[in-house]
Amino acid sequence: MVKPVQGEIKVGVVGYGLAGRVFHTPFVSAVPGLVLSGIVQRSGDSAARAWPDATIFRGFEDLLASDVDLIVIATPNATHAPMAMQALRRGKHVVVDKPMAGTWSDALAMEKLAKELGLLLAPFHCSRWHGDFVTLQSLIEARTLGRLVTVEAKMDRFRPILRQGTWKEEESEENGILLDLGPHMVDQMIALLGRPVSVTADVRRDRAGSKIADAFDLGLEFEREGAPVHVRLQATLIGAAPGPRFVAHGTHGSFVKNGIDQQQNLVDSGGRVPRLDEATEWWREEEQFWGELTTAADPAVPAALEKRRVPTIPSDYRGYYANIRDVLRGEAELAVTPQDGARTIRLLELAMQSSATRTTVAVSDTDWEKE
Questions:
Q1: Largest pairwise CA distance in the chain
Q2: Residue 290 maps to which CATH number?
Q3: Domain with 279 in it
Q4: What is the pTM of this model?
C-alpha cells in the first residue's frame, strides 16, 4: 500500500540531459495536481531558463533535503539503482528512468525496499503510451487479426560514428542498446502477451571499435490461446533505412505500422506539451503514417484480401504521469509496477545469457515470480 500524498504533489527531477529535458519535465508540468518543484542540474542554466518557477539544485543531496514528494531519476544508467534506493530511504516516492536497474538483483532489492516503506516505485516504461503500440494492442485484444501468430518490432537508429563525450558510449554492463531500447521493447511485449516461455538472442557490436553492444536480435516465445506466439525484437545503431515499427500476423490478417512515435522529436524541436486541463490537443499522427490492416473477409478465400488504413490511437506520456498522480492520491492502481521493471531486467539478462551461450534459455517460475 502506497502512502498517499495530500494536496499538490511536488516533483523533483534529477538530471537535465535528454531524459530530464524531453521525457520528464514537460510531461510532469502538463499534469494537473503535479508541480515541477525542483530540478537537479549540476552546471549550466538551461533548466532555470526553461522552468523559472522550479528551484534549481546543484546536487542530489540538496533535492533529497527539500520538501518534494516524488523524485524522478533521469541520470546515467549506472546511477539509477543507487540513487533510487537513496531517495526511498529518505522517504521519497520514486520514478526511475529505464533501465530500472543494471541487474535483476538490484531491481528486486529496490522493489523490496519500496514495499517495506510503503512508497511508490515506478519504472518509466513510457513506450506503453506510444500511439502505435496502443493501436496494435487494441487490434490484438479485439482479435481483429484472429489468433495472433507472430509479432515483429524494430527500433532502429543511425549512429554509425562512435559519439565522443557521452556516457552512452562508455564500456559498462549498464550501457548499450540492449539496456537502452531493450526495456521499452520487452516491456511492451510483457504488457501485450504476459510471461514468455523462452528467450533466444544475439547481442553484438556492429560498429568498428564500439565499446558497447550496439545491435540485438531478441526472440521471445509466448503461449496464447493454446498455441505459440513468436516475437522478434530488433534494434541497431546502423539502421539508416529503418524497417516497419511493428508487423503482426494472425490467422485472419496482418497489421504493418511504419514510422516512430513523434513525442520526442516534437519536444526536442521546441514543441510545448499542453496541460491535460487545456482544450489544446497535444498531437495526432497524420494519416500518411497510419498502419495498414490487411484481412480476408473469408479466410477460406485467402486471395480476396481487404486493405484499410487504421488511425493511430492518440496516446502520450501525460497518461503515464496522470497515473502516477492518481496512485499517490489513492485513486488508482500503478500501471507500470516495480515487478514489471524487475521482470524486464531479468529477461534482458536472459537475453545476454542466450547470446553468450548461443542457446535458447527457458524462462523459469523463479525468473518470473521472484520478489
A1: 68
A2: 3.30.360.10
A3: 131-260+274-315+349-357
A4: 0.95
Cell numbers of 125, please? Answer: 516504461
Question: Pairing mode, if any, of strands 246-250 and 227-236?
Answer: unpaired
The answer to whether 183 and 99 have CB atoms below 8 angstroms apart is: yes
How many separate domains does the chain show? 2
The mean of the pLDDT values for the chain is: 95
Same domain, 182 and 103: no
* CATH code, domain carrying 70: 3.40.50.720
**pLDDT grade, residue 371 (50/70/90)?**
low
Return d(Cα 70, Cα 305) in angstroms, integer. Answer: 51
Among 334, 319, 302, 147, CA closest to 223: 147
Q: How far is Cα 117 from Cα 122, in angstroms, rounded to an integer?
A: 14
The residue among 67, 76, 64, 62 whose CA lies nearest residue 15 is 76
Cis peptide before 99 (omega within 30 of 0): yes
